[in-house]
Amino acid sequence: MSPPEVHHLFHNPIVDHSFSADQSTLAVTRETTVELYSKVGDAFKLKDELKGHDKTVTSVDIAPQSGRIVTCSQDRNALVWEPSPTGYKPTLVLLRINRAATFVRWSPSETKFAVGSGDRVIAVCYFEEENDWWVSKHLKKPIRSTITSVAWHPNSVLLAAGSTDAHARVLSSFIKGVDPRPPAGVWGERLPFNTVCGEYLNNSAGWVHSVAFSPSGDSLAFAAHDSSITVVYPTGPDQPPRAVVTISSQMLPFKSLLWSAEDEIIAAGYDCEAFRFQGSEAGWQLTGTIESKGRPGLEQREESALNMFRQMDLKGKAKDDTQLKTVHQNTVTMIRPYETSGDRVTKFSSSGVDGRVVIWSA
Amino acid sequence: MSIIQQHTSATLSDAWRTINIDALTEDSSLNFDTSTLHPPQPEISEAEVRQLAGQVRQLLRGGDPEGALRGCLETPVYNGEDAAKDAHMQTIIEVLQSIKASDMSPLLKSIYGTEGGSECLDVLMKYIYKGMAAVHPGNASRSPTKDASQGFSQVGGRPGANEPATAAMSVLLSWHEKVVEVAGLGCIGRTMTDCRRV
């Protein structure tokens, strides 16, 4: 297992990051701008800044095929940045929301994206050729509070959303003329726009921080503020799910999770490191942390006696314990798949409040 | 008109800023009963709590503290009258006080290891916090200077009428420490997050 690749970009929190498909470009949010870094040798160098929002940028996503970047911000807008030879050209999207936009993700088909917001709606946006304009349709019912995260099903029609009303929901975002009719699956057969395919909450009903479909799209996992992860296995339309497995952990809550395989979930959050969960319908367990503790390079150097006494004199203690033992020195805000082989995620990337982006082997 | 007056009138005309716009939005959380978002909890009456307390005491006398603790943690009073809630807390505090300090950790570990054990410890944590909130030291109006002069010897026998309260608090504090050791910080997080209050 190779050691993690650590890139300390700056001293501001990174709330979201995204790699381009060839992994040469990295987009990270930094206050009201999105910074684009390109890979030079082993390091990432600042290449471009996307300035267009006038409030904190909350989310960024690069479409893997088209290379378009979508960003959203607390200024209630979303922008689509089109790559062109002279740089990125922003296009404003009509979201029609009057609270902050919180989360944005491209659908796998890249013809749509979904924007979660504090206005109790998810704006599903698509390009209208006639008007040359990005328009949105609102998923409203039965959302009662701010959307914290959204995730797309591989069929680009179903959308999972986590909310501060403690529910994780699966909704249909089918748009006539944009989407091909999806095949019937475990979530439902007929899926007109705003069909509610499932509504789940866990026992203690904490805020949902993150949602994700499994690689096959047949199960859903969500992480909530009660330090738990819940995995839902649906049976079919209008039937109760055949299994809902909740794992309450001893750790602090998880901010983000991803499926690295059908039987493995990786989650990271306020503990500043990533953890691995393994299991199936029959049950899930926390199997350990991704970081191998005591890696060379992070170990404490042997202190000289002089150094020790100097530290005692200056700081009143022999050891400098201002550093966490984890690679990230603050909350991990987002983890994303970085490299896949077959249907397994072999590498994933994480970004944190400490301004670091780290690439891990899963 | 002086600058100060101008400023005041400007501030007055800004009164619209304090309008709670959520009240005017039809489907905002202010106009919506958020408790309907969660499944309702079964109501537990005071009589049921008393009956359970009797069973728990019997288990305690029979030398089965683990069974006694489990018994009261498995039926928390989430929905019931205040009297029922208080009675149940009394039962739990009684059980906690009757368990020896050296038995705490093994007992908690064995509960945590069983199915539903994590949930039980979350409930225990809720009652520990509720207990801490309910223990009135009786002399809350005491001046802080006097408090400071007593230094670290607070837990030890302080002369006065509040000995039972102090004893109860020290029991709760040591249980709190042991529960966090076993169930982790996640347990505290769940206590704060949970919509089901005891």
Automatic annotation (TrEMBL), chain A:
Residue spans of the WD repeats: 50-82
MF annotations from Gene Ontology: actin filament binding
Keywords noted in UniProt: Actin-binding, Cytoplasm, Cytoskeleton, Repeat, WD repeat
An example Gene Ontology biological process: Arp2/3 complex-mediated actin nucleation
InterPro entries tied to this protein: ARPC1 (IPR017383), WD40/YVTN_repeat-like_dom_sf (IPR015943), WD40_repeat_dom_sf (IPR036322), WD40_rpt (IPR001680)
Subcellular location, principal: cytoplasm
Locations listed in the record: Cytoplasm, Cytoskeleton, Actin patch
Record keyword Repeat present: yes
PANTHER family recorded: ACTIN-RELATED PROTEIN 2/3 COMPLEX SUBUNIT 1, ACTIN-RELATED PROTEIN 2_3 COMPLEX SUBUNIT
Function of the protein: Functions as component of the Arp2/3 complex which is involved in regulation of actin polymerization and together with an activating nucleation-promoting factor (NPF) mediates the formation of branched actin networks.
Annotated family: Belongs to the WD repeat ARPC1 family.
Name the UniProt record assigns to this protein: Actin-related protein 2/3 complex subunit
From TrEMBL, chain B:
Entry's localization field: Cytoplasm, Cytoskeleton
Function of the protein: Functions as component of the Arp2/3 complex which is involved in regulation of actin polymerization and together with an activating nucleation-promoting factor (NPF) mediates the formation of branched actin networks. Arp2/3 complex plays a critical role in the control of cell morphogenesis via the modulation of cell polarity development.
One Pfam family named in its UniProt record: P16-Arc
Region: Disordered, residue numbers: 138-160
Composition-biased stretches (Polar residues): 140-153
InterPro entries with a match to the protein in the record: ARPC5 (IPR006789), ARPC5_sf (IPR036743)
Gene3D superfamilies according to UniProt: Actin-related protein 2/3 complex subunit 5
Domain of life: Eukaryota
Coiled-coil positions: none
GO cellular component, one term: Arp2/3 protein complex
Annotated keywords: Cytoplasm, Cytoskeleton
GO biological process, one term: regulation of actin filament polymerization
Main location: cytoplasm
Name listed for the protein in its UniProt record: Actin-related protein 2/3 complex subunit 5
Family note: Belongs to the ARPC5 family.
